[in-house]
Amino acid sequence: MRMKRTIWTSGIFALICLPVLTACNDDDDNEDVLRNNQNIIQTVTSIYPSAQILEVEPDYQGYEVQMSLDGREVEMHLDGNYGWIYTEFEDMAWSALPEAVVSAFNSESYVFNPYEDDVDRIEYPSGETVGEYYRIELDREPADIVLCYNPDGSKRQP
User: Fold this and answer.
1) Which end of the chain is more exposed for a tag (fewer CB within 10 A), N or C?
2) Quick one: residue 12, left, alpha or beta (phi over 0 = left, psi -120 to 50 = alpha)?
3) In whole angstroms, how far apart are CA 111 and each of 55, 61, 141, 149?
4) Which of 122, 49, 37, 51 has the alpha carbon at shortest distance from 81?
């Protein structure tokens, strides 16, 4: 009787732990394949020659490429055909914003809290050049407020 109980208990334990143990599968092999994908490398280096690819993950649009660029980590987003969608330079200092953006923001009667709010610079393809805009995310309850400005202070849709 005791032997049956031990076998039964061990079997249940194995059935419970097996999904947990197999769920911890290391995905590094797939990550290396994406990080070394020549199409991704070509797109990244054609836009940012000094970038170093750190990590690549598939996302709903195509690929999210984490890279190091001039000592900072940035996120580049590519479509499923390896075309550049945009690059996000996160957590900019408020003092680094163009004066026109700060003026436009202040004219809307918002207050920036550097401990809760966030500023990102977004670069994107704009014909033969690189366009940019600034996204300011205000952490407010019950919903965050997202404001986007072109470098000249004009508003744009998020």
Assistant:
1) N
2) alpha
3) 35, 33, 14, 16
4) 37
Q: Are 113 and 87 in contact (CB under 8 A)?
A: no
In a domain, 150, yes or no: yes
CA separation for the pair 79, 74 (Å, rounded): 17
Name the residue type at position 89. F
- Distance of alpha carbon 30 from alpha carbon 143, whole angstroms: 36
pTM of the model: 0.76
At 9, list the tokens: 């208990």
The pLDDT of residue 35: 67
* Number of domains making up the chain: 1
Judge whether 103 lies within some domain.
yes
Reduced 3-state DSSP string for the chain: CHHHHHHHHHHHHHHHHHHHHHHCCCCHHHHHHHHCCHHHHHHHHHHCCCCEEEEEEECCCEEEEEEEECCEEEEEEEECCCCEEEEEECCCCHHHCCHHHHHHHHHCCCCCCCCCCEEEEEEEEECCEEEEEEEEEECCCCCCEEEEECCCCCEECC
User: Which residues constitute the domain of residue 101?
Assistant: 90-158
**Does the residue 101 lie in any domain?**
yes
Residue spans of the chain under pLDDT 50: 13-15, 17-27
